[in-house]
């Protein structure tokens, strides 16, 4: 099958289910904008304010590691949780697209499959995902862009990502 025939077939598939694809991406965007981003912003702000650290940057990260070790550990844990959320976001999209294609899409089913995958994530997988994001995702930002990823990669500070 030539690439033009495949493109035509995928375009036809998309136009048949465009509303479901729109709802899938819109639901992910709403979850990011109203739940995930404010939650991480609140936690980061609370931790930094509680320890009297005005901001985290490349210049003061060594000071934070040496004088505020607990804050550093909390921020690393938050970063790992953020990687889990990004993994869940991507898994949700993949499950949703697959379910729409097989014509059995439900939000509940996509959330259940995503949660099942998130429960299987190991620490080594998170480190690999972090490396993947550092190397590949900035170039893939052209194709797959979300507000959460935009906040991570547009940030000029080390841990003050949201």
Automatic annotation (TrEMBL):
Residues 7-152 form the Glycerophosphoryl diester phosphodiesterase membrane domain. Keywords: Membrane, Transmembrane, Transmembrane helix. The keyword Membrane applies. The chain crosses the membrane at residues 21-40, 72-94, 123-144. The keyword Transmembrane helix applies. Pfam families: GPDPase_memb. This is Glycerophosphoryl diester phosphodiesterase membrane domain-containing protein. It comes from Lactobacillus helveticus.
């Amino acid at each position: 099958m030539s690439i033009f025939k495949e493109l035509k077939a995928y375009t036809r598939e998309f136009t048949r289910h465009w509303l479901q694809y729109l709802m899938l991406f819109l639901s992910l965007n709403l979850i990011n904008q109203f739940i995930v981003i404010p939650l991480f912003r609140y936690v980061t702000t609370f931790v930094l304010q509680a320890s009297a650290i005005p901001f985290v940057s490349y210049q003061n990260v060594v000071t934070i590691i040496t004088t505020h070790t607990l804050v550093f550990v909390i921020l690393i844990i938050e970063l790992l949780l953020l990687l889990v959320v990004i993994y869940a976001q991507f898994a949700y999209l993949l499950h949703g697209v697959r379910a729409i294609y097989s014509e059995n899409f439900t939000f509940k089913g996509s959330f259940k499959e995503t949660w099942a995958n998130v429960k299987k994530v190991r620490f080594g997988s998170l480190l690999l995902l972090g490396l993947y994001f550092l190397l590949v995702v900035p170039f893939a930002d052209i194709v797959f862009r979300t507000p959460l990823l935009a906040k991570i990669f547009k940030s000029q500070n080390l841990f003050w990502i949201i």
